[in-house]
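This part of the workshop introduces the protein records we will be handling. Backbone structure tokens are a discrete shorthand for how the chain folds in space. Once this layout is familiar, the rest of the handout is easier to follow. The record below serves as our worked example for the rest of this section.
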Amino acid sequence: MIEPGDALPAGMLEGSEGQFALADRKGPLVLYFYPKDDTAGCTREAQDFSALLPDFVALGVELLGVSKDSAAKHRKFSEKYELTVPLASDDGTVMAAFGVWIEKQLYGRRYMGIDRSTFLFGADGRLFRAWRKVRVPGHAEAVLAAAKEMLGT
């Protein structure tokens, strides 16, 4: 499991432009992992990050949402809700590196799923702050405040 001060893990993701290496991302970065496109909590989270995207961009902080959904499903999701936050697909490799692919339980049934989590990395590629078991209301604003703190603005 990644902890503050750790380097950005390596791994490949698929975005709207095709596959890319996570390690190729430059500058401050917010990675948020979410369970599934087009569900209530995930939609609200993507809308909240989309609404604040100009504020993150003004700080020079890149945003990226990650789930196991396909790039095609991400496109439909983004179009349906007019999302501006970039979304990427993972086969589970990056999620495992971050410790967000976990066993869950619902109505007594156990299954593997994504623990809604967010990670803020500095320009040096080191983890500044992590949020696990995220509750969506107010979360995007808290991440923006932490980014401002990290950058001293």
